[in-house]
Design brief:
The structure holds two protein chains of two kinds.
Chain A (H helix, E strand, L loop, with lengths): L1 E4 L2 E4 L5 E4 L22 E4 L4 E7 L10 H21 L7 E7 L3 H14 L16 E5 L1 H7 L5 E3 L7
Parallel strand pairs in A: 5-6, 6-7
Antiparallel strand pairs in A: 1-2, 2-8, 3-4, 4-5
Chain B lengths: L1 E9 L2 E7 L4 E5 L6 H17 L3 H9 L18 E9 L6 E9 L9 E4 L1 H6 L4 E4 L11 H7 L6 H11 L9 H14 L2 E5 L2 E6 L2 E4 L5 H14 L8 E5 L7 H17 L2 E5 L3 H10 L6 E8 L6 E6 L9 H17 L6
Parallel strand pairs in B: 3-12, 3-13, 7-11, 11-12
Antiparallel strand pairs in B: 1-2, 1-4, 4-5, 5-6, 8-9, 9-10, 13-14
Amino acid sequence: MILRENNIQIDFRGAIGVIKFDEPEVSNPNFHGLSHCMKAVDFIVEMDDSYLFVEVKDFIRASDPIDMNKIITSLRGKFRDSFLYRWAEEKDDKPVKYLCLLEMENALISRMMKELKIKLPERRPTPRWKKSLAETCIVANIERWNTNFPDWPVSRIDSEGEA
Amino acid sequence: MIESVSFEKFTAFEKLDLNFSPGINIFVGENGTGKTHILKTVYAACDITKSQKSFAEKITKVFLPSNEQTGRLIKRASGSSQGYVEVKRRLKDQDKSISLRLTLSNHAKNPEKTTVSGAYKQWTERPLDSVYIPVKDMMANAPGFRSLYNLRHIHFEEVYADIIDRAYLSPLKGPTDVSRKKLLDILQGSIEGKVIIKKEEFFLKNQQGELEFTLVAEGLRKLALLWVLIQNGTLTNGSVLCWDEPETNLNPRLMRTVVEILVELQRMGVQIFLSTHDYVILKEFELHTQENDQIIYYSLHRNKITREIEVNSTSNYLEIAPNAIDETFADLVDREIQRSMGGKMR
């Protein structure tokens, strides 16, 4: 099942279902409808044992310098609002994994992943929590993604839609 | 400025040609890909214009092969073999280049058994100030080192004695020009003082008093050394700076200062050669340089099949390939993803 965000596409082979979670099209049954008050991750993918929340951002083509805090705040906001939305939909029956595909160099990925794990926060950060918001979260660029998730290949597509 | 270097069957290189930037030249690559050898070659070629030593002798002293047998600098092979190193230099006020070639066989027992060809006379008649900053700091161990080095055969590459000589040079006379003053101010801000020399011993002097270099953090000594070399005019327009792994013992925060100074020196006309294993240094160069700055990155690596050393060069930081530093981060990212996802993908 292929999903596309701007010029990046991901093939989630073996998924039970995939939706473009921030769907802006009113006629689409997956129309988000609350974009005025809630942020949303790009895709939600249902696997056998989990839901994958997937966010895609292409910084390689961005002209502004990368602002780590701003990105983390944005990634965190999207995740939490999406989590609440899914809770309200009663689609919170499997653990959630947050996969962020950010096109940036490996050294920054490493730092970004560490920050996101702390700020999201992932797992159960306090003994008072009986369940976790995100079972795990990872950050990867296209190269690292394809190395680690060979079954979910990512590719860039040109303006004509050719991979 | 040094324009190019060619090696054939010399130290680690089977055959390698490098064309340099008149500004900043940065060498990256795994251990054993010859980064330091390139720096030492460039330095030896520059130093003989001042020290008036023979090229063969300087190369031998700087590389320090066992028993100072110059022939041991030939790349290891079975039987007899011959190789060379050639350095090309552009003369500052003339529109022409001259070159110097050292040819030797693996049987050469000493520098006299080698051949130097090219414009040796012209080369040594035209002084080219140069400095080589080695990985290990020598400032704290300077007192007595120079006389010991001159009197006895102690086993140190000559770059260690040379750097002390450069640091001992007295400050330039007259008022400090604006560009040098700017650099000295930046460095003084970081080292919080000035450097003074008393009886061959270096001290960091500030309002609290004088602190001997053995008590100064090693990273700060590096900045202090840079301060001294700028203050005494060793690093000035037209000179050459070779710096082997500036990051060693340096707090990552101070790397910003180091790179800022290096980029400014390049703008003043200093040609810079440095080797690094450090992401922060590379990134700082990317952030500090502007369109007019002249910078080339060289990625030294071994050919997967022949195992010989090759080089890729680029002026674009993002195009450095292969990039051993980035690959290290990639490996860290991979292991972190695998751990986060429970060790198995999907």
